[in-house]
Amino acid sequence: MKPRYSDEILLEGLRQGKTNVLEYLYSEFTPVVRHLVRKNSGTQHEIEDLFQDALMILFRRCKEKNFCLKCSLKTYFIAICKNLWMQRLERKYRLLFQAHYEAHEERCAYIPEERTDSELMLERERLMHKNIKSLPPDCQRILKLYINKIPYAEIARLLQVKDEIYVKTRKYTCKNLLRKKIMNDPDCKQFFYYE
Amino acid sequence: MNEQKITGEWIDRYNEGTLSEAERIVFEQQLKVDPVLRAETKIDADLNILMSDKERFDLREKITEIIERRRSHPSFRKYLLIAASVALMLAAGGWCYLLFIGIQKPDAAREGEVQQEAFDIRVNSDSESRFEFMNEGGDRVHISTSGIDRNHASSTDYEPVPEYEMLVGSVTRNYQLILKSPPQEKTVKKGTPVRFEWVQQSHISMVSLLVLNNRGAVIVDTVQADNNVLMLETSSIKPGLYYWKLLEEDNLVTMGKIFIQSK
Question: Are the beta carbons of A124 and B63 separated by less than 8 Å?
Answer without folding.
Answer: no
